[in-house]
Design brief:
Layout (H helix, E strand, L loop, with lengths): L1 H31 L3 H14 L3 H18 L3 H14 L4 H16 L4 H14 L6 H25 L1
Helix pairs in contact: 1-2, 2-3, 3-4, 3-5, 4-5, 5-6, 6-7
Length: 157
């Protein structure tokens, strides 16, 4: 009886991983075909399954990337990157997400304080990472952009 139980567990666990692979491939194909709603749905199913943390982190990163680059919904993109950092703080995707949050806040939403916070967070955690040079560049850029926007506001008054 125990043997049958273990065989069932093994079969179902293999099938669930196969389904995650299938969902992942489905999401990628939908994205390639610009069917973003279906890609988003497939990625959310992977995330909500909770079956594989590394797969879920990767799916959440893809979801945030779709919102950023394909749908241009920066609010949703920020939400997904922040959620990824909270759920999977030690993943490679969390590191990339921190950097992306700095980038989005600086270049798309003009939330300079948030951009500075995320870039400093990135540099504090990953000072020797390949992206550290870019984070420093973006921090210097944020100072310039903040000054330019302040001058624009003064001109309007």
């Amino acid at each position: 009886m125990k043997f049958l139980y273990y065989m069932c567990v093994l079969i179902f666990s293999c099938n669930s991983n196969f389904n995650l692979d299938e969902k992942w491939n489905e999401a990628i194909e939908y994205r390639k075909k610009s069917n973003f709603q279906k890609a988003i749905t497939s990625l959310k199913e992977i995330i909500e399954s909770g079956k594989n943390n590394s797969f879920s982190a990767q799916a959440q990163y893809q979801l945030a990337d779709i919102y950023l680059n394909d749908v241009n919904n920066y609010t949703f993109s920020i939400k997904e990157f922040e959620s990824l950092i909270d759920k999977y703080p030690n993943s490679e995707f969390a590191k990339k997400s921190i950097f992306m949050l700095g980038y989005i806040n600086l270049n798309y939403t003009e939330s300079y304080d948030d951009a500075i916070m995320y870039y400093n967070m990135f540099l504090g955690k990953y000072p020797y990472d390949d992206l550290a040079l870019s984070a420093n560049y973006e921090l210097n850029l944020s100072d310039s952009l903040r000054t330019i926007n302040a001058l624009k506001k003064l001109r309007k008054k």
